[in-house]
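Q: Can someone sanity-check these two? First one:
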Amino acid sequence: SARGHEVVISWDEGGALVLGEPGSRKSTFLASVVVGAPGPQIVVSTKPELMTATWLSRAAKGPVYAFAPLCWDALPEGVKPLRWSLISGCADPHVAARRARALMEATASAGLANSGFWEGKGRAVLPALLCAADLSKQGLRTLARWLQEERYTEAVEALERWSDRVEESMISTLRQMTGAADRTASSVSHTASAVLEFLQDAR
């Protein structure tokens, strides 16, 4: 109930907007909804106490997963970590292009001269590297190494091996990088590798 009124929610469609000041037990209400849901749920929250209050009840109905990349070790024993690979699926050049675009748009390149130009170059190089990594079954750290060391030969070889599955433009883009002037290769690598800074966190 809320302020003495019964709250009814349809599981088929619609939703509910819950407003209240701090300490008004909004999270308690949400926990009761999570526990009482008749089927699978996707629950998005920044509050770990919501999972603490509900996972045991939900586990009785089926497996419980949590996406918490920075605190795997803090998950309850019965909650399985949910992982997502940036590389998986990038053998499809269109998927690789979409992911690369999203990564580059989320990365600032302030302080780099002609940053717009280098961001454009990074958007061309990153899809090719994502595609090469997926085709050759390499992980994200290998992709990061290609960028950091400015060595694209392995990636070019991977794309050439599966040339029937990728666009020729991808292969030519990386070929150009292998023969690019030092400043060009370094600037492109610096811009694109910024999207992988999170790999510095060992977790």
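And here is the second, same format, sequence then tokens:
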Amino acid sequence: EIRINTDTVICDGEVVTINVGNPNHSIRGDWKYNLLVSAEPEIGGHHPGGGDLELAALAETLTNSDTVAHFVDSEFTPLIYNDDGAVVSCPNGIDTTIVIWVNPVPDIDVTATDTLICNEELAEFQIDVINTMVDGQWVYDLDVEADPEINGARLDGVYTTDSTFFSDRLFNTDTAAHKVTYHFSPRIIPSDGGLDCENGRD
């Protein structure tokens, strides 16, 4: 037998450690394992796999070159070589396969219909979700900074893919031009409750 413990949903460029446990404590011989790795082409940094391995931990820095989530799967097959000089391991080892999903770098594309408007006109924004398939939830943080003379700008908040268009009717109480700055920061909340994938293109 073999026991594996690892994080199965990570962010692009994150280090993941696969802990390999040997539950066969009372044996006569050597306990090892074979590792077969199969990764989607967009995934980099994974272990190449191999035979007769004895490592108790495999540390990988996995990268995802795409805009959607991709995975790598690793099949561990335990081996026992009897201490009577056997060169062939005991058959029928119970294998274990783990799948690690690597989320992409969070990305967002925002288009404003106009960046110079008149008093009481609408400021309209179209949000394009670049990361159309992730393991978890894609959201964006919106930070709004308005000059004191401007009314009608929305408050800061967290928005999901349900909010890909919005408009604010802006009022300027002064006799001079003033501005509102909208800052969009995408992130991915992984499905396993781990740390958010951040530091994307805002």
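A (reply): Looked at the second one. Residues 171 and 185 are 25 Å apart (CA to CA). The longest strand covers residues 70-82.
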